[in-house]
């Protein structure tokens, strides 16, 4: 199982970014996918979850209305579209799947700063 995130970077407050997570090594379309984030000294926080069909995504209250999780099962990729970014969104963002055990990507840094 491999999860590879991309798309992070430095963005000004109010800006947008789209993160991607390319998955391999398992039947992507059969598993729920999630995005988490973590800042130094804090526990990893669930940001969004998307079911196998892409319908009925769930979001943390802190990102609801600003972030959108989606997936393309043909491309084995899950996305996180982030809009109206705030400094408190600064974190390392991780892609996650639980199959027989937990699998994490290496993370991608998102920094929101002027």
Offer a quick outline of the entry.
The chain has 114 residues and is mostly beta strands. Helices cover 0% and strands 51% of the residues.
Give structural attributes.
51% strand, 114 residues, 11 strands, mainly beta, 4-stranded antiparallel sheet
Give an overview in words.
The protein is built from no helices and 11 strands. It is an all-beta fold and 114 residues long. Strands 2, 4, 5, 6, 9, 10 and 11 form a 7-stranded mixed beta sheet that branches. The chain starts with a strand and ends with a strand. 29% of the residues are buried.
List the helices and strands and how they pair.
Layout: E1 2-6, E2 9-11, E3 17-24, E4 33-38, E5 45-50, E6 58-59, E7 67-72, E8 77-82, E9 91-98, E10 102-104, E11 108-112
Parallel strand pairs: 2-11
Antiparallel strand pairs: 1-3, 3-8, 4-5, 4-9, 5-6, 7-8, 9-10, 9-11
What distance separates the N and C termini?
37 Å
Main structural class = mainly beta
Average pLDDT number: 97
The count of strands amounts to 11
Sketch the topology as an H/E string, one letter per element: EEEEEEEEEEE
Radius of gyration: 13 Å
Largest sheet, in brief, is: 7 strands, mixed
């Amino acid at each position: 199982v491999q999860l590879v995130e991309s798309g992070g970077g430095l963005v000004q407050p109010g800006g947008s970014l789209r993160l991607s997570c390319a998955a391999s090594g398992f039947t992507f379309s059969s598993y729920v996918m999630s995005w988490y984030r973590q800042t130094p000294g804090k526990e990893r926080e669930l940001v969004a979850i998307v079911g196998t069909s892409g319908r009925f995504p769930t979001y943390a209250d802190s990102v609801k209305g600003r972030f959108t999780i989606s997936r393309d099962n043909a491309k084995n990729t899950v996305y996180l579209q982030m809009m109206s970014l705030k400094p408190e969104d600064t974190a390392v963002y991780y892609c996650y799947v639980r199959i027989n055990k937990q699998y994490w990507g290496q993370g991608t840094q998102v920094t929101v700063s002027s």
